[in-house]
Design a protein that fits this description.
The chain has 1 helix and 11 strands. The protein has 169 residues and is mainly β.
Length: 169
């Protein structure tokens, strides 16, 4: 019927996403965050805090109960309105479970009018790790939270897992 990726996108959108208001019939921009973890059975919710650093628009408290595919991947949408010549997002993910807490902070810019996927790993090695300001725990230890736009991939909605080798079925 529907692929797991399609279901995740719809569920995440309906469950509450960070949306900058859209105008008229203009095409909206979507940033689809694809999350991969090596401990999917230990994470039962992800809290999303996101802010457009240029407009100041902010939403907090979106809680997603992820559905993981066989590769430990899940996804959700961060959508922005069309017409932003420059936009920068600050995204904080807090993944928790009965004995797990992995936090990841991301700052990135994006291109308006394009659906783009951003791949983020939430490794067990980051469980309980706190990094210095402007850094975040990654699969390689503490690194800058700034992510280059070069790592965002243009995708079709519902096909975001196919853009990343570790998440492909």
């Amino acid at each position: 019927m529907f692929s797991l990726a399609s279901k995740l996108v719809v569920v995440a959108f309906l469950a509450g996403t960070f949306v900058f208001s859209a105008c008229g019939t203009e095409q909206s921009t979507r940033i689809i965050v694809v999350v991969q973890t090596d401990v999917p059975t230990q994470i039962n919710r992800i809290q999303l805090n996101a802010q457009n650093l240029l407009s100041g628009a902010f939403e907090t408290g979106d809680i997603i109960q992820p559905e993981w595919n066989g590769a430990g991947c899940g996804s959700f949408i961060v959508a922005a309105r069309e017409g932003l010549e420059r936009a920068e997002l600050s995204i904080e993910l807090i993944a928790t479970g009965p004995s797990t807490m992995i936090t990841r902070e991301i700052r990135t810019k994006f291109t308006p009018n394009v659906n783009q996927a951003l791949y983020i790993e939430l490794p067990k090695s980051c469980d309980g790790i706190s990094c210095s300001p402007s850094n975040t725990c990654t699969e390689n230890g503490c690194e800058s939270s700034q992510i280059s736009t070069d790592v965002l991939r243009e995708v079709e909605l519902g096909a975001e897992f196919a853009a990343f080798t570790k998440c492909s079925p």
